[in-house]
Amino acid sequence: MHLKFVIVLSFSIQLWCMAAVSCAYAQDTSSDTLKLSLNDAESRFLENNLQLLIQHYNIDNAQAQVVTAKLFPNPDLNFSSSLYNPGTKKFFDYSAGQDEYTGGISQLFTTAGKRNKNIQLAKIGVQQAQYQFFDLLRTLKFELRNDFFMIYFQQQSAKVYDQEINSLQQILKAYQEQYAKGNIAEKEVLRIQSQLYSLKSELTGLQVGMDTVQSQLKLLIRVKPGTYIQTQYNYELNGKEVLGNVPYQKLLDSAYTNRYDLKLARSAVDYNKLNLKLQKATAIPDVTFSLGYDRRGSFVNNYNSAGVEFNLPFFNRNQGGIKQARIAIDQSNIQLQNQQDQVESDVSTSYIIASRYEKVYNSFDPHFKGDFNHLVQEVLKNYQKRNIGLLEFLDFYDSFKVNTIQFNNIQLSQITSLEQLNYVTGTPFFNK
Fold first, then answer.
1. Domain segments of the chain: what residues?
2. 285 — alpha (psi -120 to 50), left (phi > 0) or beta?
């Protein structure tokens, strides 16, 4: 009777631990714990992420290049004076009848619309910088949301391990006491110890993986490295035909319209076409107009002059620059086609994967998890009453752990597959 009383007592403690495990799990680093919802994470990301800030400076730089392209060339001013007069043997001799100096001003005028073409190229450069910024935003946001969901489901799985570990520790303590009194066999104590060590090892591996993902998320939202992030998420997908609400063609059209890497590829074609026009215009000489004055050095005193200057395009007509520009157009067209093919492949593959996970997830009975948890309680009661043996109890408990973790992984896979569709279409269709 004494042994039975101890075992019943140990299981009562075990049940109390199972009820309190969710609270105990979050208290290891309570002083440095950050409770974070998905919306909170995204807000912190947009406000604090340094990679976005760095990329945004590229937009500012591109806008500064537009300002530079709009500027006209500065005029050139020249002045010269006699240094030494050998007749009077004086330096800088400005005496009457001996002073000599010249001066002039000239202005370069670009031809063939070069200035306007440079302005248009600079404006396309601003667009490209913006496209790069928003594509980086799309990529980092995808990483952020994936990290968030992975942490959430890892924490749910860790709770299952904590539940079993806390329970087995209580059972082990009671069994060790009874073994010391000679009431039970050593093999039962060793069997529980073995199961306990195995669970602790698996939990450690899970926690190490969670630490890595937490580190990535903390860097994205810029929180202190020592902070523990406790995710909060309530969205349920039970039995929902999510993909059926958005036709495949709509996904593909959205990708063509909203993918910034595709927009960047299109703008590269526009940039190179305009650059070809600029290179052809470069072959046309620019013109410099000038005005000059000479005090005494010409055939008459106080000589005034006007002039024009331009080079003769006999040899260099920018043949190499024009050829390079044409090659760049062909290259960018191929790159655009490749990017379009990549977009189609991304959407198709992601849609197939998401469909598979949705089918698997929806094949589960929505009451499965609740029913399984209830069954665990019944198994505990039967073990307390010695209706089942230790090995049968541990095997069932292990089965509970495996199935719960697999269920969490399926949920994670389904949600992240929908996030992948959001990413490849450039549109937040799912997991809003």
1. 2-73+110-283+318-425, 74-109+285-317
2. beta
